[in-house]
Every structure is written in C-alpha cells, then in structure tokens.
C-alpha cells in the first residue's frame, strides 16, 4: 500500500513539475531580492503572533469576567489534528490532479473571499471607526428575523451593528473583490495576516501538555509531507488562496505589479506556534510578575527558528518544513526557562 501511494505521488509530482516549468518562466532572484523577500516574510510572521497573543489575552480576561469558558482543543483533538490535516492535504493534492485547477481555485477563492472579508472586518472595525470623519454618525441598526407568533417568538437572526461597521465591511469587501480578480500578492498578504491574527486570538490551548502533543504531531507531519513527498509544496503552489504569505524575490527587477517569483510561508507555520506562544503569555499573566518572561523568551526563540529555516532554505535551495526548526525552539525554550526559574510544575499544571 505504501509503495502504491509513493508511486502515485511520484507520478503526480513529475507531471506537476513539467507543467509548471512550461507555463511560467520565473525571473531569477538576485541576492538583494531574496534578502528583501526573506526579511519581509519574517517580519510578517512575527506581527500576527505578537498582536494575536495580546488579543488572545484580552479575550481570555473578557471571558473570565463574564464567566464564559471558551471552546478549546482537547488532548484527543491535538492527537487527531495531524492525521486529519494529512488526509485533507492529500485529498487536495488528488483533486488538483483530477479536476481543473482553475475551477477548483475559483471555488476555493470564492469561499476564502467570504471568510477573508469577515476576518478583516472583525479585525479592523474598532480602528476603522476612529479613522472615519466625525460627521459620519455611528447609527445603530438591528436586523431581526423571527419565527411564529408573538407568544412563541423565536429569533432566527438577531444582528446588531452600526453604520461604521457597515462601511468597514463594504471597504473590506471592495479589497476582497480586488484580490478576487487580480490575485495581487499585497491583497493576499492583507487577508493572510487577518487570518493569522484571528487564528492566534481565537484558537485556545488549555495547557502546555496539549500544546506539546499538537506541536510534536505537526512536527512529524511537516517533515513527512515536505521531505517525504512533494505534496505539500505542490498544493501550496497550486492553491490560489490567502493561506500563505508571499513576497516577490524579483521586486527590484519587475516592480510591485510585474513580480512573478515569490518566496512563501504557510499560515500554519505562524498560527500553530502562535497559539502556543499566546498560551505562554497567559501563563505569564497567571504568575502575576512584572515581566512576560516566557512569552518574550519563546517569541525570540520563534524568531531564531524562523531565521534558521530561511538560512537553511537558502543554502540548500529547497523547500524546508519550517516546523522542523520552530517546534524544538518553541518547546525547549519555555521548559529551560521554567527549570531555571523553578516554575516547571506550574508550567505543566
């Protein structure tokens, strides 16, 4: 069975490599162009983790005041996640080989258009309101659909929103339309960053043990699908949706509009370590100390791990599983800090 799967993957990879080379001739990347692209990707990876972690802390404190328990990942979920992700990844790979890539990307892009507009408007609505002219009123609206009579009235839809939020949503929808028709890399990155920040903010881990299970499972997952086969790289290049951050390596030669040689970083390499780092920030707050020692140390370790990924990718001229370097950095660092600080029991409690 394993040999059969390997043969299928090998055949698909050879077909994809041939078609890719014939369709698009990329502009060779210069050392300056690669340096700009790599630095930009690293910065774009750090921003959502930093912002998302503090937004996650704020949401956690808000839920604590309301005595609400946020939905979080269990140990079983963490164990099953790499298996489910592997099935989904290989299914996408098969679909892209069987069906028209243009048709699949049209459906996927439309789906992510809706999600992206919602994510970006959620992220920007408070800041957007402060940027609007003061003569635009913050009028409140209530959209309500009910069922049955007044005695047995059931609210099917009960939405409350302001005029500022409507303007914000329409502006995000306009940007989404620009991405939908142009697929420009700047619009892609705006929606990718919105997804990443919301992911780090909303996805919660209950404790370090669950985080370790999740990261270790995805550590193996990433190594297998990048080094074992070309499936992940093929899907990432074929999947025309803002599930990755990209930056042109030929920006200096072809400019913003003409660039066609991109370096990329998957959102999973940001969100997965990000939710673990956000957990450490909440742990820092629970210790009630003046410094966020665990968050700062692990955030720095993530940066160094990502830098290592980029350097090795540049040296070997091949795609690298970023979690191969990020997972050890994010797991070993807080454990070492806890050993030195005497917080190891508290960390795993």
UniProtKB/TrEMBL annotation:
<keyword id="KW-0812">Transmembrane</keyword>
<protein>
    <recommendedName>
        <fullName>Minor histocompatibility antigen H13</fullName>
    </recommendedName>
</protein>
<dbReference type="InterPro" id="IPR007369">
    <property type="entry name" value="Peptidase_A22B_SPP"/>
</dbReference>
<feature type="transmembrane region" description="Helical">
    <location>
        <begin position="78"/>
        <end position="98"/>
    </location>
</feature>
<comment type="similarity">
    <text>Belongs to the peptidase A22B family.</text>
</comment>
<feature type="transmembrane region" description="Helical">
    <location>
        <begin position="35"/>
        <end position="57"/>
    </location>
</feature>
<dbReference type="GO" id="GO:0042500">
    <property type="term" value="F:aspartic endopeptidase activity, intramembrane cleaving"/>
</dbReference>
<keyword id="KW-0472">Membrane</keyword>
<feature type="transmembrane region" description="Helical">
    <location>
        <begin position="293"/>
        <end position="316"/>
    </location>
</feature>
<feature type="transmembrane region" description="Helical">
    <location>
        <begin position="256"/>
        <end position="281"/>
    </location>
</feature>
<keyword id="KW-1133">Transmembrane helix</keyword>
<feature type="transmembrane region" description="Helical">
    <location>
        <begin position="322"/>
        <end position="340"/>
    </location>
</feature>
<feature type="transmembrane region" description="Helical">
    <location>
        <begin position="212"/>
        <end position="236"/>
    </location>
</feature>
<dbReference type="GO" id="GO:0098554">
    <property type="term" value="C:cytoplasmic side of endoplasmic reticulum membrane"/>
</dbReference>
<dbReference type="GO" id="GO:0098553">
    <property type="term" value="C:lumenal side of endoplasmic reticulum membrane"/>
</dbReference>
<dbReference type="Pfam" id="PF04258">
    <property type="entry name" value="Peptidase_A22B"/>
</dbReference>
<keyword id="KW-0256">Endoplasmic reticulum</keyword>
<feature type="transmembrane region" description="Helical">
    <location>
        <begin position="104"/>
        <end position="124"/>
    </location>
</feature>
<feature type="transmembrane region" description="Helical">
    <location>
        <begin position="161"/>
        <end position="180"/>
    </location>
</feature>
<dbReference type="GO" id="GO:0033619">
    <property type="term" value="P:membrane protein proteolysis"/>
</dbReference>
<dbReference type="InterPro" id="IPR006639">
    <property type="entry name" value="Preselin/SPP"/>
</dbReference>
<dbReference type="GO" id="GO:0006465">
    <property type="term" value="P:signal peptide processing"/>
</dbReference>
<keyword id="KW-0378">Hydrolase</keyword>
């Amino acid at each position: 069975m394993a040999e059969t799967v390997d043969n299928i993957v090998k055949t698909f990879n050879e077909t994809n490599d041939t078609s890719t080379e014939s369709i698009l001739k990329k502009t060779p990347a210069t050392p300056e162009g690669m340096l700009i692209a790599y630095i930009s990707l690293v910065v774009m990876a750090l921003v959502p983790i930093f912002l998302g972690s503090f937004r996650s802390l704020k949401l956690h404190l808000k839920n604590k005041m309301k005595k609400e328990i946020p939905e979080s990942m269990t140990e079983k979920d963490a164990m099953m996640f790499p298996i489910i992700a592997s099935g989904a990844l290989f299914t996408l790979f098969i679909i892209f080989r069987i069906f028209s890539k243009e048709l699949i990307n049209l459906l996927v892009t439309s789906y992510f258009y809706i999600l992206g507009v919602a994510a970006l408007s959620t992220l920007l609505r408070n800041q957007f309101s402060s940027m609007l002219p003061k003569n635009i009123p913050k009028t409140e609206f209530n959209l309500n659909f009910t069922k049955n009579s007044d005695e047995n009235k059931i609210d099917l839809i009960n939405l409350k929103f302001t005029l500022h939020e409507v303007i914000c949503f329409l502006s995000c929808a306009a940007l989404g339309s620009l991405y939908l028709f142009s697929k420009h890399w700047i619009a892609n990155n705006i929606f990718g960053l919105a997804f990443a920040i919301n992911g780090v903010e909303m996805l919660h881990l209950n404790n370090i043990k669950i985080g370790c299970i999740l990261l270790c499972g995805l550590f193996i997952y990433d190594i297998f699908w990048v080094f074992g086969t070309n499936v992940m790289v093929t899907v990432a290049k074929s999947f025309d949706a803002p599930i990755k951050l990209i930056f042109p390596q030929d920006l200096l030669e072809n400019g913003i509009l003409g660039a066609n040689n991109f370096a990329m970083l998957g959102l999973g390499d940001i969100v997965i370590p990000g939710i673990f780092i956000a957990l450490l920030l909440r742990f820092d707050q629970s210790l009630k100390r003046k410094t966020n020692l665990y968050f700062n140390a692990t955030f720095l370790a993530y940066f160094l791990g990502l830098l290592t990924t980029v350097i090795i990718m540049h040296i070997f001229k091949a795609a690298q599983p970023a979690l191969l370097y990020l997972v050890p950095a994010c797991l070993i660092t807080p454990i070492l800090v806890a050993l030195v600080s005497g917080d190891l029991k508290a960390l795993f409690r």
